[in-house]
Amino acid sequence: MEVRLELILESIQDIKGKKSVRIDLRKLEDRPADYFFICEGDSSTQVSAIAANVQKRMKHELGELPKAASGGRQANWVCLDYFDIVVHIFHPDTRKFYQLEDLWSDGIFKAFDNP
């Protein structure tokens, strides 16, 4: 699990994703996954690039594909579902609107500085 979590973080940082947070949801009964990654990009282009890099590296380095990927090129929010890890990549305004961190505030948060 740790290798996968590190690879996702590195993939986000490769494309200069900002305000990255990992939320450990394993102690919550109603969790949709074990972990959430939440980050943001300054534009829909950067959001798409971060999502593409996560998918590329997970496939090439670990042989994993997401069970679902929603969003797309012009999206302000891309969600990559790797069963037990869900990656949310937002445009800043969309992140503020949905406030996922508040919805899952019972989880254990770990924030990562921009490299």
UniProtKB/TrEMBL annotation:
<dbReference type="GO" id="GO:0005737">
    <property type="term" value="C:cytoplasm"/>
</dbReference>
<dbReference type="InterPro" id="IPR004394">
    <property type="entry name" value="Iojap/RsfS/C7orf30"/>
</dbReference>
<keyword id="KW-0678">Repressor</keyword>
<keyword id="KW-0810">Translation regulation</keyword>
<dbReference type="GO" id="GO:0042256">
    <property type="term" value="P:cytosolic ribosome assembly"/>
</dbReference>
<comment type="subunit">
    <text>Interacts with ribosomal protein uL14 (rplN).</text>
</comment>
<dbReference type="Pfam" id="PF02410">
    <property type="entry name" value="RsfS"/>
</dbReference>
<dbReference type="GO" id="GO:0090071">
    <property type="term" value="P:negative regulation of ribosome biogenesis"/>
</dbReference>
<keyword id="KW-0963">Cytoplasm</keyword>
<protein>
    <recommendedName>
        <fullName>Ribosomal silencing factor RsfS</fullName>
    </recommendedName>
</protein>
<comment type="similarity">
    <text>Belongs to the Iojap/RsfS family.</text>
</comment>
<comment type="function">
    <text>Functions as a ribosomal silencing factor. Interacts with ribosomal protein uL14 (rplN), blocking formation of intersubunit bridge B8. Prevents association of the 30S and 50S ribosomal subunits and the formation of functional ribosomes, thus repressing translation.</text>
</comment>
<dbReference type="GO" id="GO:0043023">
    <property type="term" value="F:ribosomal large subunit binding"/>
</dbReference>
<dbReference type="InterPro" id="IPR043519">
    <property type="entry name" value="NT_sf"/>
</dbReference>
<dbReference type="GO" id="GO:0017148">
    <property type="term" value="P:negative regulation of translation"/>
</dbReference>
